[in-house]
Amino acid sequence: AEADALAAEAKADLAAIAGVTVGSPVAARGVAMPGVLVTAHIRLVGRGGKVVFTTRQGTAVLAARGSEPSVVAAAIDRALVAAASDVVPPVKTSLGAAPVISGEDTPIGEPGVVLVRLSPRTPWGLVQAEQKYLAGAKGVQRAVIRRLSPGGWVIGVTTTESVERIAAIARKPPASDVTPRVKIVGDIVEVTLAGAP
After folding, report:
1. Is pTM, for the whole model, over 0.85?
2. Which residues does residue 15 pair with via DSSP β-bridges, in sequence order?
3. In this structure, is residue 92 part of a structural domain?
4. Checking DSSP bridges between strand 188-195 and strand 113-118, what pairing results, if any?
5. CATH number of the domain where residue 167 is located
6. 59, 71, 171, 176: least buried by Cβ within 10 Å?
7. Same domain flag for 171 and 131
8. Same domain for 74 and 22?
9. What digits encode the pLDDT tens for the residues 131-154?
10. Of the candidates 152, 149, 147, 180, the residue with the CA atom closest to the CA atom of residue 166
11. 189 near 170, Cβ under 8 Å?
12. How far apart are CA 58 and CA 60, in angstroms?
């Protein structure tokens, strides 16, 4: 109440009430000198219509290594600063747009693996359906999702079949309500799927 009256007299929108408790010196294990526990409490009270909040509180507890007045005073200062940083709301930061990757995004193949790339906008359900469909095809040992990049999803199909044969398999829809479009670009089979996942 006294702080509120002082804030009203000063015509301030905010009033800060701070309190510090200094404990008595105690022996600390493994330390040659006694330690003092310092606790600081700060309450920030908003007044008037300009303040968004009514009350904020902050607390900090520090230990002073020694009982000399200068050491305890430094611990009090640090405790008050820590309590003040606890009571003041953090500054809102906004994230900027993510950087756009540019440059070569061609996946690197390996012997015995045919790479199938799907558009990056392909829904996850369709990616899974295509992967399962390719994994179950004749002549395919396995189909594994390799990565997602700005260039699209990449499925690695381990097989002894040719790129053309995997493209022919990919031309068949993985589900009844999906329509695939397939083209071969270099050693990569590019598939565009349209329909429900």
Report:
1. no
2. 45
3. no
4. parallel
5. 3.30.70
6. 176
7. yes
8. yes
9. 999 999 898 999 999 887 777 889
10. 180
11. yes
12. 7
Res 41 pLDDT > 90: yes
Tokens 């695939």 -> residue:
180
In a domain, 99, yes or no: no
In tens, the pLDDT along 66-113 reads 889 999 999 999 999 999 888 877 778 888 887 776 767 778 888 999
Question: 100 in a domain, yes or no?
Answer: no
Q: Which two tokens stand for residue 87?
A: 């009571």
Give the domain range for residue 126.
113-195
Q: For residues 193 and 180, is the Cβ–Cβ distance under 8 A?
A: yes
- The two three-digit tokens of residue 24, written as one number: 């008595």
Region of residue 30 (left: phi > 0; alpha: psi -120 to 50; beta: else): left
Q: For tokens 């000198």, name the residue.
A: 33
Closest CA to 137 of 155, 117, 118: 155
Quote the pLDDT of residue 109: 81
What interhelical angle do 124-135 and 163-170 show, nearest 10?
Answer: 120
Total count of domains within the chain: 2
Structure tokens, 111: 């012997």
Q: Would 181 be classed as within a structural domain?
A: yes
**Contact (CB, 8 A) for 132 and 155:** no
